[in-house]
Write a structure and sequence with these properties.
By secondary structure, the chain is of the alpha+beta class. The chain has a single domain (9-163), classed as Pnp Oxidase, Chain A, CATH 2.30.110. Helices cover 19% and strands 37% of the residues. The protein has helices at 9-22, 61-68, 108-118; strands spanning 25-32, 35-42, 44-45, 51-57, 71-77, 91-100, 131-144, 150-154, 162-163. Strands 1, 2, 3, 4, 5, 6, 7, 8 and 9 form a 9-stranded antiparallel sheet that branches. The chain is globular, with a radius of gyration of 17 Å. The chain starts with 8 loop residues before the first helix and ends in a 7-residue tail after the last strand. InterPro entries: HutZ, Pyridox_Oxase_N, Split_barrel_FMN-bd. It comes from Nitrospira defluvii. This is Pyridoxamine 5'-phosphate oxidase N-terminal domain-containing protein.
């Protein structure tokens, strides 16, 4: 790693916050017959990336996948535009597990109100019986800010970014 690749943690955290503020939707990755399946979804983050909330229909394929296997990833990316290098777009990939957030859970109402503040057009869907709030508990994050600028964090210390290291399992 060169000095050019390394940034102060505060700068990495600021870039992460800018990315998630500018991208209101992401790609939910579930498992379908053992293979990744992507769905475009609006998301709401908790205090940091280690917890995310989705409002999903039980009729959707991705919901059926989550009911069969709760392992999940959420991929959030900077929008592409002419003139940008698509390979250098900023992006975040978080992995964890998902569960339905019960209506009687202590945080349900506050999550619902935050979700509606961010996505007011989904108010009607909260009245539909087939929709539910899902809570995604994420364990790991992979943040790419550009070429040679890949960082990882864990849920144990979600705001502490470390320069990417090769995966020992590969």
């Amino acid at each position: 790693m060169s000095m050019q690749d390394s940034k102060p943690n505060e700068e990495i955290q600021a870039a992460y916050e800018h990315l998630i503020t500018g991208a209101r939707t992401g790609v939910l990755l579930t498992l379908r017959n053992g293979h990744p399946f992507g769905s475009h979804v609006p998301y709401l983050l908790g205090a940091d990336w280690s917890c995310a909330y989705l409002h999903l229909s039980r009729l959707a394929l991705h919901t059926h996948h989550l009911l069969d296997d709760s392992r999940v990833s959420l991929f959030i990316a900077e929008p592409d535009e002419p003139g940008k290098n698509p390979l250098a777009l900023q992006r975040l990939n978080v992995q964890g597990t998902a569960r339905i957030l019960p209506v009687d859970h202590e945080s349900y109402e506050s999550v619902k109100q935050r979700y509606l503040a961010k996505f007011p057009q989904s108010k009607m869907m909260f009245g539909f019986g087939d929709f539910a709030l899902w809570e995604l508990r994420m364990q790991d994050a992979h943040l790419v800010l550009g070429f040679g600028q890949a960082y990882q964090a864990s849920a144990a210390s979600p705001n502490q970014w470390h320069h990417q290291t090769p995966d020992k399992k590969a």
